[in-house]
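Hi there, hope your week has been kind to you so far. Thanks so much in advance, here it is:
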Amino acid sequence: MAIAQMTGLPRLWASDFTPHRRVTWLELFFDLVFVAAVAEVGSPLSGDYSPAGLLRYAFLFVLIWWGWSGHTLYCTRFDHDDLVNRLLLLGQCFIAAVMAANAKEALDSRSSAGFAAAYAGMRIMQVLQYLRARSLPATRKLTTRYAAGFGTAALLWVASAVVEPPERYWLWGVALAVDFATPWFAAQHSRRFPPDAAHFPERFGLFTIILLGEFVAAVMRGIESQEYWSFAAASTAFTGMAFAFAVRWWYFDVAKSAQERHIRNSKQARLFELWQYAHLPLFLGIGVAGVGFQRAISLPVGAELGMGEARILCGAVAVVIASLMAIGATAEGGLGVRNLWGQAAILGVAALLWAMPVRTPRVVLAASLLAAAGGPALVASRCRQPPRKNRAAAGH
């Protein structure tokens, strides 16, 4: 590799005037590392499927996803593939592994402090990327604001690692607020230089597919725990696989989430922001639902999920449905208000299951959740088809 290639400066991707970018093997590797970290963070949830376990999982999940999203936003806005940038990317992969290794214990433990310190390291890596991109005069205000915001957050995360609870929790809250406020602080400049219209949704689509693969792996772990198959275990396992299929169908074929996202005016900018942030509850819901299906499959004959566990599973599915509705509403040529009302009715079914005062058999619960996720996808796909007469005319 030549010296220029080792230390080359970044250039800005103009999403509306460059050929379509394909996801690289390095980017796919990066995504796999982060989904593996999500899986590790979720392993304690399978043993503590309770509100406390859910809170712990959600907090750690948000940090991993936000770190991944921050890097993805940078590399879809700037084209930068020199040796230095690859080393920074490798460092972020390693830090994701360190975060996962420190995600096994409670939030007041020493490990959680290590998790926060590792996350600070990831933010520092991304600050270095934005500082290198300041060499571009057109985006200097944008990169400066991102570097300042993420740098401030990194300092707060480092500080939180050296104090004890409850002061640690207060610092986490402030650091997280700074982290999430940084893109809004730079929103005016971000809209002038949006991320690549095709590449950014493609990265989110690939992350969704890999995360659904981890959902399927959770179903497999539930199957492995059964020494002798029962009808309840087999049907719940099949329903879990079908649920993943339905979510994939809704996400790609109905909500059209992976289609190009151009930002040419303020309305498209707001829709883009809604689309991006709606993925956080979607991914979180998929992760929590995967663990819930795993627990339902692995139950012995005659046992059912407890009321609290069933409500967490139903709530996760309701979050997935609501997120898919929000994502679908941002697509160009959406399905319209009538279809959104139909999807809202299905969301009410998941909420009704959550409020059930008695235990629901796992077979009935899993089938109902599958219907709640698959029903809107089926109805919406029918709505997208042209009338029969039009299809016949098109055939002629």
Remarks:
- The two ends are 57 Å apart (CA to CA).
